[in-house]
């Protein structure tokens, strides 16, 4: 049984990135969405990104940005992976020559099978709790009973925290989990005790799966 991959999103500070790396987190997300309280300019994210060790991925989170903005983010940040969080069509997501994951607005009654077909070029689908057109990163869970297996990796997100992530891992066995507000002291500032507790909860749940 493979372990659950962990992404911490909404990183804005070098010391939070380094603490996450120390905890063994697999991927760090940088929110390049100007309206987000966790927005980080691409140049600042790039400075953090340059200090990531091998095998820790940098993820650029984008929402309904135009192609020039996305390309500029890629050129500046040099992310390993793109995360599209808006209404971007599949051909747009694929047009940058980088692997991408597509966020699904599980606040709507979404059926995952047609979305997996539409975004068949995606590296995975990320399940968040926002409604279509909504923002994401709201710290709210969605009804996990609506998750159905599809033939691509699923990343569980939306309102995860140290207290509920173990249940999510045991119940849904996702490829990965993604958290932003559930490990924060305030928007954009991570709480290192919550970060540690989150990772420990995932590790414990992985052990219980076997
Ligand atoms: O974090 C944000 O501010 C954000 C803004 C716009 C789109 C997505 C955003 N965050 C992503 O939402 C999910 C769930 O976050 P949370 O754990 O419920 O706070 C996660 O993928 C964030 O990266």
From TrEMBL:
Might you give the EC number(s) for this enzyme?
5.3.1.24
Q: Name one GO molecular function term.
A: phosphoribosylanthranilate isomerase activity
**How would you classify this enzyme at the top EC level?**
isomerase
Q: Where is the N-(5'phosphoribosyl) anthranilate isomerase (PRAI) domain?
A: 7-200
> A Pfam family for this UniProt protein?
PRAI
Please state the pathway this protein functions in, per its UniProt record. Answer: Amino-acid biosynthesis; L-tryptophan biosynthesis; L-tryptophan from chorismate: step 3/5
Instruction: Name its GO BP terms in alphabetical order.
Output: L-tryptophan biosynthetic process
- Keywords, comma-separated and alphabetical: Amino-acid biosynthesis, Aromatic amino acid biosynthesis, Isomerase, Tryptophan biosynthesis
Q: Which residues are listed as membrane-spanning?
A: none
Q: Which Gene3D superfamilies does this one have?
A: Aldolase class I
Q: Does the keyword DNA repair apply?
A: no
Which reaction does this enzyme catalyse, per its entry? N-(5-phospho-beta-D-ribosyl)anthranilate = 1-(2-carboxyphenylamino)-1-deoxy-D-ribulose 5-phosphate
Q: Which InterPro entries match?
A: Aldolase_TIM (IPR013785), PRAI_dom (IPR001240), RibuloseP-bd_barrel (IPR011060), TrpF_fam (IPR044643)
Enumerate the PANTHER family for this protein. N-(5'-PHOSPHORIBOSYL)ANTHRANILATE ISOMERASE (PTHR42894:SF1)
Q: What is this protein called?
A: N-(5'-phosphoribosyl)anthranilate isomerase
- Organism listed in the record: Solimonas fluminis
Tell me the lineage of the source organism.
Answer: Bacteria, Pseudomonadati, Pseudomonadota, Gammaproteobacteria, Nevskiales
Name of the encoding gene: trpF
């Amino acid at each position: 049984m493979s372990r659950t991959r962990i992404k911490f999103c909404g990183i804005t500070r070098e010391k939070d990135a380094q603490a996450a790396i120390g905890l063994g987190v697999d991927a760090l997300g940088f929110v390049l969405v100007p309206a987000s309280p966790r927005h980080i300019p691409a140049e600042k994210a790039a400075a953090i990104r340059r200090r990531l060790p091998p095998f820790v991925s940098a993820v650029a989170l984008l929402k309904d940005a135009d192609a020039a903005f996305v390309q500029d983010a890629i050129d500046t940040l040099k992310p390993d992976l793109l995360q599209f969080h808006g209404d971007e069509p599949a051909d747009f997501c694929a047009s940058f020559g980088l692997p991408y994951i597509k966020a699904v607005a599980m606040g709507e009654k979404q059926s995952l099978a047609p979305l997996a077909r539409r975004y068949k070029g995606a590296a995975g689908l990320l399940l968040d709790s926002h409604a279509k057109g909504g923002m994401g990163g709201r710290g709210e869970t969605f009804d996990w009973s609506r998750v159905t297996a599809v033939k691509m990796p699923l990343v569980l997100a939306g309102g995860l925290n140290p207290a509920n992530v173990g249940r999510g891992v045991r119940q849904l066995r996702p490829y990965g989990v993604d958290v932003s507000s559930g490990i924060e002291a305030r928007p954009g500032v991570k709480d290192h005790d919550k970060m540690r507790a989150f990772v420990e909860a995932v590790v414990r749940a992985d052990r219980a799966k076997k």
